[in-house]
Structure formats: C-alpha cells, structure tokens
Amino acid sequence: MKFTVNVECSPEEARRFMGLPDVTPINEKLVEEMGKRMEKNLQLMSGEAMMNSWMSVGTQAQDAFVKLMTSGVSGAAASREKP
After folding, report:
1. Predicted pLDDT of residue 58
2. Coil, strand or helix: which one is 69?
3. Is this model's pTM higher than 0.70 or not?
4. Cα dihedral: 71, 72, 75, 79 (round 10)
C-alpha cells in the first residue's frame, strides 16, 4: 500500500517538528562576518588588480574549452576516416 500526505507548514514549523536545531543566529553571524571581510578585501584591492585576476581565470577557462572542443572534433573526424 502506498499513500501520500501533503502537509502545509512553514520551514520553521517543519524544523521544529523534525527536532532540528535553529541555526538562524549562527547563519546570520556567518553571513555578516563574510560581508565584512569581503568589503575589507575589496577596499584593499584596486579595480585593475581585481579585473586582472578575474580575466586571467576567464581566459584560461576559455582556452581549455577551445582545446577540449578541438580535440573532440579531431577525434570524431579521425574515427570517421578509418574504415
């Protein structure tokens, strides 16, 4: 026998029903601390340095993707040519 029960409740009510701890204060503190650290690091880094670090990763990923596609196409073409 199989049956389905739909219960409509808030996440808070579900958490309490399941006996799970309320981690909201910990999460809020963590998010606040991460925000402070991020703002501090952004103030220390110049816009040019930030863009250079982002772009270096972006171009490496693009180059890797192009190599992957090129090798895939070359492999597919080579397998079609072999009888």
Report:
1. 65
2. helix
3. no
4. -170
Tokens 């991460």: give the residue: 34
Three-state DSSP string of 5-66 = CCCCCCHHHHHHHHCCCCCHHHHHHHHHHHHHHHHHHHHHCCHHHHHHHHHHHHHHHHHHHH
As given in the structure block, the two tokens for residue 76 are 């597919």
pLDDT for 83: 59
The answer to whether 58 and 65 are in contact (CB under 8 A) is no
Mean pLDDT by 10 residues, the chain (83 residues): 93 91 92 90 75 70 82 78 63
User: Both tokens of residue 73?
Assistant: 């196409």
